[in-house]
Amino acid sequence: MTIGERGELRAAEYLQNKGFYILERNYRTRRGEIDLICADDRYLVFVEVKTRSSTSFGMPCEAVTYGKQQKLILAARQWLQEHPTELQPRFDVVEILVSPNHTTCRMHHIPNAFEVV
Question: Which residues fall within 8 angstroms of residue 19, CB to CB, at 6 or more apart?
């Protein structure tokens, strides 16, 4: 299992513990991919998970650039066309820093990390 796959697994467990239901993992379209799609009784959440073993190149959330956001938005629009819902959509980022030996991690959940304008 890669570091990214481990991060996505931990992020899914974290979100489930916060009361979210995981609807889909690694949803792919021609325009982009969404790591996790989850929901609670109010929100439909499109989640980008960024896992890193160091901050040498910045915090993991900094990798969710404007270009990446646009790809996530396009993929989310496609998912919403296929799965209409009354829930309020939002985009979250979960950043995970793991120790070099992968024994410990620090997770930071950023709800509503960016908006569609």
Answer: 40
- Cβ–Cβ < 8 Å for 60, 50: yes
Burial of 10 (0-12, 13-18, 19+ CB in 10 A): middle
Contact in structure between 21 and 38 (CB atoms under 8 Å): yes
Place of tokens 């993992």: 25
User: pLDDT by residue (tens digit) across 4-57?
Assistant: 888 899 999 999 999 999 999 999 999 899 999 999 999 999 999 999 888 888
Q: What is the pTM of this model?
A: 0.92
Residue 101 corresponds to which tokens in the numbers above? 């030996």
Domains within the chain, CATH numbers bracketed: 3-55+62-103 (3.40.1350.10)
Q: What token pair was written down for 112? A: 């509503």
